[in-house]
Amino acid sequence: MTEKEVVDVQESGLEFSLRVLLKHPRMSLEAITAATGVAPQLTSVLGEPRLAPNGVPLAGTHPLHVWSYWKTYRNQREFQPALVELLDLLEPAKPVLSSLYAGLPEEGAYAAVILELQGQQNIGDDITPAVLARLSALGLSLGIEVFPDANAAS
Q1: Rounded CA separation 21/65 (Å)
Q2: What is the pTM (predicted TM-score) of this model?
């Protein structure tokens, strides 16, 4: 096998997602869509009835405004390039993000990029200080979630 074929086999089946999750107790997050041109896959509006993904009504109303966008990457080991791509999309919204989240964490405001990893995979990467600084400059925290395969043998 060539070196490229070995890398292709090693990365085959790898998967991770990057999710932007924004929550705010008072302000609508439509300005994020306007500033970035990115359409969220999930939104919730404060006070509106809650619905399951299949449209079935749930008890209560949404307690916060929510805006979430994600992208899944397959057959790729390094997630820093994907994070840089996401930051490039979000940086036009820096003034909006800064104004939305200044001093509000205690009131339920939340702004993060979440790296979602599959639990049954050996995958990893380094995120350089320069990329972390870009994330911080937007006021975003970095979350990491691992989703173990529920069907895997214990």
Answers
A1: 11
A2: 0.81
For 45, the token pair is: 């509006």
Strands 110-118 and 141-147: parallel
Q: What is the pLDDT of residues 60-86, one digit of tens each?
A: 999 989 999 999 998 888 889 999 999
Handedness of CA 10, 11, 17, 18 (dihedral sign): positive
Burial level of 2, CB count in 10 A (0-12/13-18/19+)? exposed
**Could you give the C-alpha distances from 58 to 6, 47, 53, 55, in angstroms and in order?**
48, 13, 10, 9
Half-sphere exposure of 134 (CA within 13 A, CB side): 17
**In sequence order, what are the residues at sequence separation of 6 or more whose Cβ sits closer than 8 angstroms to the Cβ of residue 91?**
134, 138
